[in-house]
Design goal:
Helix content is 41%, strand content 16%. The protein is of the alpha/beta class. The longest helix is centred in the first third of the chain and has 30 residues, at 55-84. The chain is elongated and about 75 Å long. The relative contact order is 0.13.
């Protein structure tokens, strides 16, 4: 692994740690994580540079910052090429009882002003808590910087005692979305088994448990009941892809 050569003074320790982590991740071909660490490390080094008066040290810092910027730019170009070719793949493993995985935390980096249409395939949008999960996901789409106009939901129909609850709940969500200028298109399938979410900016997210990866809160007045970042999760895997063609043919 390449040495950072920055010294171990108090002002640069954090930057050295982050840059070393970026180098490790890059050597392991974990380019997405490496890029994040490079960007964070560069920001820290710029702060160190501002507080450095010695011209020799400043010159060395500028050279290091330039080198790391070049590496970060090279990784960014590579990732962009992977996205363009439809080869991009990132995997996140959510451990049992892990927190910090609200819909906002998981999806925010893939949502921008270019997102106008969303497709959701999830066979289990039936029970009350699953309807609330879907509602929270819709709330995120409405308040994020994206300008969603249409949401397509493909799910399975509850053929049991919960059929009326599912139907009325989805209808209420549809009417509420309409008040925000968003059209909800509902479709049911008895054979659906895939769980995936697609945005028309090219991102596709597959979650092993679909939207229902949160554990039941201990009570209505326990932390995590309202803030999903504090809600413990079931173990699941999230696979993220990028493809220019997000709508299946």
């Amino acid at each position: 692994m390449a040495r950072s050569g920055l010294g171990q003074d108090a002002g640069s320790t954090a930057a050295v740690t982050v840059i070393k982590r970026a180098l490790e991740l890059e050597s392991e071909s974990r380019y997405t994580q490496a890029l994040v660490c490079y960007q964070e490390g560069i920001d820290l080094l710029l702060q160190v540079l501002k507080g450095t008066k010695d011209e020799t040290k400043k010159c060395n810092l500028r050279k290091r910052i330039s080198d790391y910027m070049d590496r970060a730019e090279s990784i960014k170009k590579y990732l962009d090429q992977e996205k363009e070719a439809g080869k991009y793949h990132k995997q996140i493993k959510i451990e049992e009882n892990a927190t910090g995985f609200s819909y906002e935390s998981l999806f925010q980096e893939y949502l921008n002003e270019t997102v106008t249409e969303v497709w959701i395939e999830d066979p289990y949008i039936r029970h009350t808590h699953q309807l609330y999960n879907f509602l929270r996901f819709c709330e995120m789409l409405v308040k994020r910087p994206c300008k969603v106009k249409t949401i397509h939901l493909l799910t399975s129909l509850d053929e049991g005692s919960g059929k009326e609850q599912q139907s009325s709940g989805l209808q209420e969500i549809k009417e509420s979305l309409r008040n925000h200028g968003v059209q909800l298109e509902l479709e049911y399938s008895s054979s659906i088994h895939d769980r995936e979410i697609r945005f028309n900016n090219g991102w596709m997210i597959k979650i092993g448990r679909g939207l229902d990866y949160f554990k039941k809160p201990q009570s209505r007045f326990s932390l995590g009941y309202c803030d999903f970042d504090l809600r413990p999760c079931h173990e699941t895997t999230v696979d993220i892809f990028h493809n220019k063609h997000t709508q299946k043919i």
